């Protein structure tokens, strides 16, 4: 094994063009720029119907009656289904806890919950018919936060819980609780010269992927159904869909349609079961496409959070202890809440060395919109709070905020609060050094010979300032994110790789069920196959359920896990190809038996570079095919009382420096630059890696200054379900994002790589907040920051 | 109602159009041109941007009846549109001869390179400006129109011109790179 931190030697030379480490271009790029790429909402079938979902207008209400008569009588309507029409006793689904009704039964628990579904020959007919369904509701009181959810006599969101967490939670309106205790906080607290307490609020963020939830369900002759769908994990969907339909899994065929982004919002089911039910009922293909309004109700959001922290440090700047309590609002259904709690708790103090900690994270059941997975998954909320604390501590100690972080930065060998040792590079201090060393953007860049270019100023073309009242601020932040599924989950992937001669040329075909959601996994699979099999041509088979599970496209895990599965399958194919070669040509050259052999540029070569045979000759008429599961190192659950356990597989680190300009009179912020340094282990495709970092950084920027789903605290109704009222960054809001890649190999991972996608979303938000605090001198304990928070008028 | 209009240089008819349908719906669901995307259907995201008599518009905000007798260019026709423009023959769409010779553009699995793309389409691929790609068609139509008006844009010009097109994947940096690349290649005559 090579020394940790040194790039791993390739199992196969990188001699084949288009292999790993090169910025090869997307195989789907041409289709995507010509409009020919078929997204889930583009699916079309002769004779297809359109499905539409009627959603609840209240957040918490009893359903007294549902009258579908008038809807069913509408010309063009083929079916109207409610809970009573579900075909089996399995009427709920969920990622871990099956608490989500396919259609509401007797009660709705959040605003926008599906109540009935309609199929009609035109989408407008379906919409209008749904509007004719009469639902008689009796409103119930809502619980909306920790105080109302755990008050004496509070309404229970779910009665008679029997899930795996019900036994250890302090209240039935708490989905899951994870404490982590280590060392002796009481004793450590006495050593502290400085103690800083803070209470922080993190708003509800939406994934806001651009391709709306959609798909096409086609009934099949054997009574089954074929679903063309945009999802993050085909097999997870399958396991939840089939029992509700009353079909064996092999009669629910699933093919990945084009996915217009995901970011966690497609981990849970949306319209999958509804489309299948309508297709099976009507015998016709059924397409469902949400519009943006419905999309805001149709997927889970990032958990809003309240976070209370106490940090202590000695006068020379060493952290003594951390106490924290993180309260995540999971909304009406569990979704991924238990795992989000595990992340928030185990990563709750950030990438720092602290021996004495007392951490508690909980997720609530409330009548707010359900919350679950979004890029960063529990680590994001904590990072916002602990990085604010680090700045406050540094200020109290009179230290530079970067030097203070570097002094306390974790490194390889550090123990996490869970007792797990970090056994791969953790270059936290180095990332901070690098991001700080980047050149600063010039001051007053709006000034030109023709006067102020207002486009470069806060307020932009609104022409609110020509520089008066504008103050620059600079802020830093760093974060830690786990890679892969944690806490003992069997986190495997499957790859099928085939090698054969087509048109006289050796061709590899890679077939996995990995959901390509835009991240570029398919690009990387082709690169791995070229590197490992020495072929120029690689075909990527469409993702479907005819091959084993690839696991989820989440947790920054696909290049690691499905990439690992593809490499593993390629290695097995390579061995069989070499066996074939030895059988056919072994007698012609002794090197077949004695030398280490590689496949490069379509040939079998010795490690000395001597060519033994062409791959086309070795293969001849034979096709070599392997399908194999691949796993990373196993993990363990966290102890339910102490939180101890080797729960994580790998970590990902990123640091940001934000430069902002604030119009302090109007409270308008312009982010001028958002620089990032990240350790990626090994950049399999540098262009894609940088794209991930810039995209993740921008979602963090949105969380800092604009993005928040507003939920009315009295009614628990969503107030801004549109892109008019829920703002995501435009190209005018987004600054330049210089990226510095560090590549320190993790020798436990394929090629030494590190999951990339999420870490930049963590530190981006607190860096922008720190910069705004630097510019304004305000404490700013909530995100996103709105103008009224800066002008004292809100 | 029936609508007759020109899409990407070809006469098109749509029958039995309901009055409430948008141009976007007619393109996607009636004419088999789903390249224009349906990300918000309320004019906020720009992913359905098309040229209507040369002017970039959100197809979701144009009632189908408004396009009667008019000329629409979508992402599917962008390469032909750019080719015609560069030949100086005007934006007249595809000739019958060319249409008959049309075939799907294959792409190289190693490089992603395909034939017959417009400069701005090729630049989006080369610069890594495409991730999920859902915003791409609208951005391409908008960027192509901007470069037609302003062949040598500075960064502020690009940002202003593309500010109506949301992208959630890229953080826009590679989109900036792509537009700069397309402009640079044009000025170099590549």
From TrEMBL, chain A:
The lineage of its organism: Bacteria, Bacillati, Actinomycetota, Actinomycetes, Kitasatosporales. It comes from the Bacteria. Residues 1-24 are annotated as: Disordered. Residues 34-141 form the Aldehyde oxidase/xanthine dehydrogenase a/b hammerhead domain. InterPro entries: Ald_Oxase/Xan_DH_a/b (IPR000674), Ald_Oxase/Xan_DH_a/b_sf (IPR036856), Ald_Oxase/xanthine_DH-like (IPR016208), AldOxase/xan_DH_MoCoBD1 (IPR008274), AldOxase/xan_DH_MoCoBD2 (IPR046867), AldOxase/xan_DH_Mopterin-bd_sf (IPR037165). Residues 1-14 have a biased composition (Polar residues). Pfam families: Ald_Xan_dh_C (PF01315), MoCoBD_1 (PF02738), MoCoBD_2 (PF20256). This is Oxidoreductase. It comes from Streptomyces pilosus. One of its GO terms (molecular function) is oxidoreductase activity. SUPFAM superfamilies: CO dehydrogenase molybdoprotein N-domain-like, Molybdenum cofactor-binding domain.
